[in-house]
Design goal:
CATH architecture of the largest domain: Orthogonal Bundle
CATH class of the largest domain: Mainly Alpha
Oligomer: single chain
Number of helices: 14
Strand order of the largest sheet: 8-7-6-5-9
Helix content: 40-55%
Largest sheet: 5 strands, antiparallel
CATH topology of the largest domain: Hypothetical protein af1432
Number of strands: 9
Order of helices and strands: EEEHEHHHHHHHHHHHHHEEEEE
Shape: elongated
Radius of gyration: 22 Å
Structural class: alpha+beta
CATH superfamily of the largest domain: Hypothetical protein af1432
């Protein structure tokens, strides 16, 4: 079948050799197209290619939600919901007993991580499964999942990443000792209320220290609100004083909070959230952890519809490896490279 390059999906297979307008061979028959190969075709200004028939047809205006393989939903959704419910039970036991059980934590988290095999699909899953209900418990499950993936992205092996996922899962366990009226308050906290909320890091450290031998699990709960510039709490630590796992959790904790839908606000535009994280990577958050996270998130925007400040509507066809927020955009038959044409700016990304 012959398709326009802009309509290609990752996983499509070329059915014949592809050449550019100058006769230069670009890609061979049988090549399975991924982000890099599609980008090459665009760079060579190739408009159409021939590919093998697809099992199913997908739309050119792909979104984060629609790029996810839907066959995962029936499997993962109940596991995710079970993890959220199980964390609620752990939360209650931590309050009543002052500790949590390692076997129960593993039984809750491991099935979820084992069933989410592709990091991009994890992002999609979070957006699909987010609701305004049970924010406290959903947030902990999401931070556990994303801590696992970011740990892999920054170079930890899978066993280490699973443990870091556990640290993320437990990072807010100290909230069990904070009044629900404060945790769920729909308006701005008073200074006294915020001072009480900040104690959840100390409570979490105490609960996890009683429950686990791995010291970084407790340290991560204690330090995940510390900031590399010293502006965090509870101790105002600076970069070298903060544990690397706590730096990972700090990034995904903020991300999950920003994209989550709560009863008093809607989830935010993902592109804007990543922009804000990028700015924080120069001040409050560890630059390597944050920018690695963004680097792996940005390819999700390929195929998404955007509105520019000029009012023009286009589609992102390629992202840049370092200038994360300056993609190549197609408007009709015209391409706009935002790394070159700096007078253009993205106003909105349509989710």
């Amino acid at each position: 079948m012959r398709v326009q390059v802009i309509d290609l999906n990752e996983g499509d297979v070329l059915s014949r050799d592809t050449f550019n307008n100058f006769g230069l061979h670009v890609l061979s028959k049988g090549t399975t197209l991924q982000h890099y190969e599609i980008a090459r075709l665009i760079q060579h200004q190739i408009d159409y290619v021939d590919i093998n028939d697809r099992p199913t047809q997908t739309s050119a205006s792909r979104t984060i939600e629609s790029t996810m393989n839907p066959k995962w939903l029936p499997t993962v959704e109940p596991i995710y919901k079970n993890a959220v419910k199980s964390f609620e039970n752990l939360f209650s036991k931590a309050l009543n007993d002052g500790e949590v059980n390692d076997d129960e934590v593993n039984a809750t988290l491991e099935p979820l991580l084992n069933n989410l095999q592709l990091e991009r699909d994890v992002v999609s899953m979070l957006l699909l499964l987010n609701t305004s209900d049970d924010y406290t418990y959903q947030h902990s499950v999401q931070v556990g999942m994303l801590s696992y993936y970011l740990a892999n992205w920054v170079g930890y092996n899978n066993t280490e990443a699973m443990q870091i996922g556990k640290a993320g899962f437990l990072h807010d366990i100290g909230n069990c000792r904070i009044e629900l009226g404060i945790l769920n308050k729909p308006t701005k906290l008073t200074k006294e209320e915020f001072d009480e909320v900040k104690k959840h890091t100390l409570y979490g450290h105490e609960i996890i220290s009683k429950s686990f031998d791995e010291p970084y699990l407790a340290v991560s709960a204690l330090q995940h609100h510390e900031r590399v510039d010293g502006s965090g709490y509870p101790y105002g630590l600076t970069g070298p004083e903060i544990h690397p796992v706590a730096k990972i959790i700090a990034v995904v904790d903020i991300y999950s909070a920003m994209i989550s839908e709560r009863m008093y606000r809607h989830k935010r535009d993902l592109f804007d959230v990543l922009k804000e994280l990028y700015q924080m990577s120069f001040t409050e958050l560890d630059a390597f952890m944050t920018q690695t996270f963004i680097k792996h998130m940005i390819p999700n925007f390929i195929g998404k519809k955007v509105e520019l400040v000029t009012g023009e509507i286009g589609i992102i066809v390629m992202t840049h490896p370092t200038e994360f927020f300056q993609p190549l955009i197609r408007i009709g038959e015209r391409f706009i490279d935002l790394t070159i044409e700096r007078n253009y700016e993205i106003k909105q990304v349509y989710l």
